[in-house]
Amino acid sequence: MTAESTSGTPRQPAVRRAPARRVSMADVARLAGVSAQTVSRVSNGHPSVVGSTREQVLDAMRRLGYRPNSAARALKYGEFRTIGVILFTLSTVGNSRTLEAIVDHAAHEGYAITLIPVAVPTQDGVLGAFTRLGELAVDAVIVIMEVHLLDAATMTLPLGIPAVIVDSTGGDRYTVVDTDQADGTRQAVRHLLDLGHRTVWHVAGPEDSYAAERRAETWRATLTEAGLPVPRMWRGDWSADSGYRAGLELADEPGCTAVFAANDQMALGLLRAFHEKGKVVPRDVSVVGFDDIPDSTSFIPPLTTVHQDFTEVGRRCVERVLRQVHHRRTKAGTTLVPTRLVVRDSTAPPPA
Amino acid sequence: MTAESTSGTPRQPAVRRAPARRVSMADVARLAGVSAQTVSRVSNGHPSVVGSTREQVLDAMRRLGYRPNSAARALKYGEFRTIGVILFTLSTVGNSRTLEAIVDHAAHEGYAITLIPVAVPTQDGVLGAFTRLGELAVDAVIVIMEVHLLDAATMTLPLGIPAVIVDSTGGDRYTVVDTDQADGTRQAVRHLLDLGHRTVWHVAGPEDSYAAERRAETWRATLTEAGLPVPRMWRGDWSADSGYRAGLELADEPGCTAVFAANDQMALGLLRAFHEKGKVVPRDVSVVGFDDIPDSTSFIPPLTTVHQDFTEVGRRCVERVLRQVHHRRTKAGTTLVPTRLVVRDSTAPPPA
DNA sequence: CCACCACATGTTTGCGCGAACAAGCACCCA
DNA sequence: TGGGTGCTTGTTCGCGCAAACATGTGGTGG
């Protein structure tokens, strides 16, 4: 995502045109022949307005096309009923699915979502987003991070507003909601080992992704715990194409009978590479992915993968951040959303 | 993550209460020993504040953690610098990519994006969204529709705010930005015919999608214009799985040598079905998709498909809606974003 | 019959901000 | 020396709304 200058310098005076005079309560009041306060009462469904008056007001509202000004309302109440979501990109499946769940659940709670893109996943970028957020009309923030920027101390609640972080560490200082990366990875690797594979290769996601690092770490640990050798690790960028490139090399790797890809898209690339190299999945090589994107049932062959419950992640984010909003208290801690392995047709025992 | 945690920055307390009442300009002014107006000037980078005063004010701002109240600012200016986006789902690639482009471009123009989900794609659902939008803090609306609800007259500018519709008809009454569905489809079908296929089968998207209908229509028209028979049409729901089910049947269809799927995911399902049925793509059957999602390069085989420029669609939406905001005038009309056929390995001349 | 109550409606006020205007001041030139 | 001139800073006011309080009105019971 592109960001303009995200530095904290004072805003330059923007060119503002005369505000479009919208219909206000006073206009409605005048037409209905009542006071503005009565219009307010009707607008908010206050009971002590007699039927005939109410009708007059409603009629005037309709005729003038009145709609309440939420800025004034927010000013009065001191809250916007809006949650800001900071993210780097929507192009990964996980992010967009999580966002969708956040939006739905927030709507259910009567909150709107405002999106704040951060172009450059650097510390400045994050700061910039927070700075702009400060000026945006939000009561709380959910950060969908894919990079290790949380520990930048400058990011510590620079606004003093409730925040929840997705997909990162920092559970001791922030409220974190995340998929249980370690457990999912462990299930995937164990599944392959249980099938009889001697070890498991890994195509990791980009280094700057916490999720990718966590999966790689756990892959390594699981092998080590089982007393097995840890083969060389390939590095992708989440894209199917990067998985394909890794696959072309892995196909020539002697003894490679099982590969764990850090996401389904890279697994797709692996499948293609193995296919082109004449290796049959799962007869010659087994492949496991991570995410369980809907398409993975239609890969050739249908993919064994770790199911992530993005909906649940989004739901809990909203739940936890709203709890902070209402209780005015920040509680650090991590909520882990469980995963489960979905076994399809891309895994089998190793060739004899 | 461990690397950052060793950075020399001081750790912040884990729990910090949000101040009961937020810091206002008056508080800053008091601490800095100036008037509130001077604080306002500093906040907005007004030039006529002398250096020493500015420093005092900035210092007070920092110490109190001041951030401007956007509700008050919006109330004053009569605008929110926010665009609302109404959508039904983020789970289709097109929607999330379009949204991402909208967010980016809006940010570039200094506008934030507020998301308004519509749960049920019925007329009531749309109305509900618009009603709530009326109370939301937005200056304009972009509607990402996938269903034919525009013609519901009740939606006619219920708020009188600028609106742009993506992906629909109604160009005579609304401002519409859309991918050139017809041209893309024509290119896909012509490509298959030019390769020598006698006709082209079609797996359409759901009936309630305008894009799906438009593609189906154009497919039919292109065949008819060429004097060719129009085979039975299969109906999917955009999912790979629905493409797979259609593919299982199409594989048994005599004389079916070319299939145009209304999106890439259904094409993926087709590829799997043909594979399972022992039909080799493209030797026995050619397949063309629509969208050009990044994964389509890694299908087996890499998919020939119609490239949609979602980024451009999003960009133009923002551009057109902001033009309305600034010129205070609604201009109906349709902007079509061109498509182009990307030929990969899933198409070939029909078997002899 | 009047004091009082319940309820509908009106008036005042201030949320935080910034435009418009006013005030204070230093400096300049006739 | 006196009246600009230009610059910084302060004061007033109202954006639209709704809480709090004030007022008005009709009805009821002692």
From TrEMBL, chains A, B:
One of its GO terms (molecular function) is transcription cis-regulatory region binding. SUPFAM superfamilies: lambda repressor-like DNA-binding domains, Periplasmic binding protein-like I. InterPro entries: HTH_LacI, LacI/GalR-like_sensor, Lambda_DNA-bd_dom_sf, Peripla_BP_I. Residues 23-77 form the HTH lacI-type domain. The keyword Transcription regulation applies. It comes from the Bacteria. Residues 10-20 have a biased composition (Low complexity). It holds the Pfam family LacI. Keywords: DNA-binding, Transcription, Transcription regulation. Residues 1-20 are annotated as: Disordered. This is LacI family transcriptional regulator. The lineage of its organism: Bacteria, Bacillati, Actinomycetota, Actinomycetes, Pseudonocardiales.
